[in-house]
UniProtKB/TrEMBL annotation:
Pfam families: Cupin_2, HTH_3
The protein's name: Helix-turn-helix domain-containing protein
InterPro entries associated with the record: Cro/C1-type_HTH, Cupin_2, Lambda_DNA-bd_dom_sf, RmlC-like_jellyroll, RmlC_Cupin_sf, TransReg_Diox_bact_type
Domain HTH cro/C1-type span(s) in chain numbering: 16-70
Keywords: DNA-binding
Species per Swiss-Prot/TrEMBL record: Nonomuraea typhae
Keyword field contains DNA-binding: yes
Length: 190
């Protein structure tokens, strides 16, 4: 066996055990879920049994992960630099694990619009956390006040708008693919 193969083999075994422990499952419980004997699973985790592809697929499913995630070795792209949109005051980071997701940091100075006709609605989901200041989230006819370190998650089919209250605020938003597309369509042209 080559050194790279041994490293991957050991990494996969550690992941299987770590995922099992994180779920709070005993060897017996994971073995039952994966339709393996408890002794086979123990030998897999301890390196005394060969890792077979069919068992890895079964274990990945039982651990609610994918085979790709179980055997992934890429660590060279851990740090990501933001794409900066100075015109709109935005920083965006694509999420590599889920190419449809985007993280965005935005500084807001204006309150949300008073006119409900200026609220946007589009497919998707958004999640945001207030990094500093106070943000106002308008969802339909409801108004939510979000202080520093508070978060909100909502379906974007609900008409919504976000703004600052009492001075500037900074938010960090996470958008699924549909929500990101909705905001790209709504963004003012350069």
């Amino acid at each position: 066996m080559t050194q790279d193969h041994e490293d991957l083999d050991g990494l996969v075994r550690k992941r299987i055990r770590a995922l099992r422990v994180a779920q709070g499952w005993s060897l017996e419980e994971l073995a039952t879920r994966a339709r393996l004997s408890q002794s086979s699973l123990s030998r897999i985790e301890n390196g005394r049994r060969r890792l077979a592809l069919d068992q890895l697929v079964t274990l990945a499913r039982a651990l609610d992960t994918s085979l790709d995630q179980l055997v992934e070795t890429a660590t060279d792209d851990v740090v990501t630099s933001p794409m900066i949109d100075g015109v709109h005051g935005l920083m965006r980071w694509p999420i590599k694990g889920d190419p449809g997701m985007t993280v965005m940091r935005q500084r807001m100075t204006e309150p949300p619009p008073d006119n409900p006709a200026r609220m946007r609605a589009h497919p998707g989901r958004e999640w945001l956390v207030v990094l500093s200041g106070t943000a106002i989230l308008m969802l339909g006819h409801r108004r939510f006040r979000l202080e520093t370190n508070q978060a909100a998650e909502f379906p974007t089919m609900m008409p919504h708008a976000i703004g600052a209250e009492g001075g500037p605020c900074e938010i960090l938003g996470i958008f699924d693919r549909d929500a990101r597309r909705g905001h790209q369509r709504d963004a003012p042209e350069d």
